[in-house]
Amino acid sequence: MSRPTGRVLTLLELLQSGGTRTIAELAERLGVDGRTVRRYVDHLIDLDVPVEAVRGRYGGYRLGPGHRLPPLMLGEDEAVAVLLGLVAGRRTGLTTATATAGETAAAKIRRVLPRPLAARVDAVLESLAFTEPAGESAAPDAGILLTLADAVRHRRPVAIRYTDREGRRGDRTLHPQGVVAHAGRWYVTGRDPGIGEDRTFRLDRVADARPLPGSFEAIEGPDPARRVLSGFATAPYRHEVTLRIRGTAEQIRTRLPASVASVTALPGTGPPSPAPEPADAREPDRSDTSEASDGPPWLRVEVRAERLDWLPPVLAALDLPFVVERPDELRELVVALADRFARRARRS
């Protein structure tokens, strides 16, 4: 590579690092005079690289938006960071529907890495393992994602064509508040002005999105991520479970996250009094009386689930006092699990 060509590429790398670079700064970094810097800038412009001149006391040159992506100069650390990010994004499902875009981008970066660095990156990729299963193929269309993100930023209403989980397709109007990535899926949350309620939609089920005229006021309340998680916890399922658990919200959240359960305070309440025992019943264990006086408050926990068999082990793992308010089926499952534990504990 000739020295002038190398300096032109170095100039491009400097401009891509962001901000405005003065001619004096660029001349010093390139080891040339100001006139040569201007000539190198002209070379970049001839290559359709959008270099803008900034006038004034602190003027110079900066990289502006163009009609196509200019050649991208990455340092070794930057190239490795981008490559690993592409691999992780594809593995966890946080990519757009154009799956080949991530693969071709990773291949381009991998192809131009210096051989020693490429060998080290290959070693990382071959030894890399993930604790979570591979993300499902539920990626959104890139154009729809960009349209919704722009609507969120500028508070513009959008019209979307959506297919629900029952397969019904319809047109909706949405005042989008945010785009949320959760558990390998993308969601958009906002207000449906037609019914005045908050709604959350999976982006992979959105077939079309287009901006509408006008704007809307910011929506008061929880942030988009919290709205999505609370929506999971309150969505209709086969079973509606109500518990009272004595402990802190932080303790409960270790086993029942916000996407699974809602937790609300119950000041001054506790478990119902037990039914009176026969006269010959054994004396109660006095070591448990501390739970009836001092200690953390009782909290109401509501869970909606398709199955109940996973809840008794979770409650056992919490190791906190609890009361099953409903359904009776869950109470029976808890008793059955306790009996199995007791039988196994007695085995020699």
Structural class: alpha+beta
Determine the number of helices (DSSP H or I, runs of at least 4 residues). 11
The 3D shape can be described as elongated
The Cα radius of gyration reads 30 Å
Helix/strand order: HHHEEHHHHEEEEEHEHEEHEH
- The strand count comes to 11
Amount of beta strand: 15-25%
Mean pLDDT, all residues:
82
Uncertain regions: pLDDT < 50 for 5+ in a row?
A: 270-292
Helix percent band: 25-40%
| Main sheet characteristics | 5 strands, antiparallel
How are the strands of the largest sheet arranged?
6-5-4-3-7
Q: What's the N-to-C terminus distance?
A: 79 Å
Key attributes of the depicted protein:
348 residues, alpha+beta, four-stranded antiparallel beta sheet, 11 helices, 39% helix
Quick structural gist:
The chain has 348 residues and is α+β, with helices and mostly antiparallel strands. It is 39% helix and 21% strand. The protein contains 11 helices and 11 strands.
